[in-house]
């Protein structure tokens, strides 16, 4: 396993704006006013979520919670058989919700298993955005309830579940912004959008300024304010993106992980062989 990456090494949105890594699009009108404190809590990164030394990571799970392909399989493989055993006791999870377990052999203390919607199965019912928002909100609530200070989200439902990355990023960003506006995330010190695929990072870079626009320099409370560190040194803090796809789980050390749940017909749409090699 790669060396764990501490939260302190993850760039905040304030830093990404300062370095010009994210530039607000001229045609994108902010939906919320600037808030420097929020921008100091938010990170947008591209890396393997299993390497984060953080209080909690959010897994793109299926309704069985027993593992699958892509990021789901990688998390189960990195966590070891203890994660499977605990998930087996949870009796699955409904789409649009989430459940929490220990992190076991992961550098993360906890894993929050969120079950995103299969986009094409729910689109006709007008429910995909509602269900996806439920994943993000429930995950945030679980983090707060368990007194966790940091949480990293994988890009839920944007793999074989077919949710367009642009739309999914907007649901995620707006749900987090509303949660903070309601005062429910005051104890959260870092909220990370951790992308593995370039299309997902591109979507967050495009849309983040709509929900978390840059704050004026004078208002900034970032930890980088007041230091003499120049932009080159700050840029060195940014993590390198992953160079390879997530390691497939295959067989866990003691249990065979399931690719699909057996209790929810909607997942029958997902091709089994394709699902084993892709992120949910």
TrEMBL record:
Residues 248-261, 269-280 have a biased composition (Basic and acidic residues). Residues 218-280 are annotated as: Disordered. Pfam families: Macro. Coiled coil: none annotated. Residues 29-212 form the Macro domain. InterPro entries: Macro_dom, Macro_dom-like. This is MACRO domain-containing protein 1.
């Amino acid at each position: 396993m790669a060396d764990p990456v501490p939260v302190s090494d993850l760039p905040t949105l304030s830093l990404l704006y300062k370095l010009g890594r994210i530039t607000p699009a001229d045609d994108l009108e902010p939906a919320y006013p600037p808030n420097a404190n929020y921008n100091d809590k938010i990170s947008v990164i591209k890396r393997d979520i299993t390497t984060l030394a953080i209080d909690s990571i959010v897994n793109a799970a299926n309704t069985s919670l027993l593992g699958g392909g892509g990021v789901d399989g990688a998390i189960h493989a990195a966590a070891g058989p203890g994660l499977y055993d605990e998930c087996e006791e949870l009796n699955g999870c409904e789409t649009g919700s989430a459940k929490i377990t220990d992190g076991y052999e992961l550098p993360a203390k906890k894993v929050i298993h969120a079950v995103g919607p299969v986009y094409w199965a729910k689109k006709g019912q007008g429910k995909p955005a509602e269900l996806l928002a439920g994943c993000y909100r429930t995950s945030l609530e679980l983090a707060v309830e368990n007194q966790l200070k940091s949480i990293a989200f994988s890009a839920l439902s944007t793999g074989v579940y077919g949710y367009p990355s642009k739309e999914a990023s907007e649901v995620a960003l707006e749900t987090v912004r509303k949660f903070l506006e309601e005062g429910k995330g005051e104890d959260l010190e870092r909220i990370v959008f951790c992308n593995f695929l370039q299309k997902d990072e591109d979507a967050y870079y495009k849309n983040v300024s709509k929900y978390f626009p840059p704050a004026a320099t004078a208002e900034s409370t970032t930890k980088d304010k007041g230091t003499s560190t120049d932009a080159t040194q700050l840029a060195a803090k940014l993590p390198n993106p992953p160079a390879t796809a997530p390691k497939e789980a295959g067989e866990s050390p003691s249990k065979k992980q399931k690719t699909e749940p057996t209790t929810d017909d909607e997942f029958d749409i997902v091709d089994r062989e394709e699902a084993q090699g892709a992120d949910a």
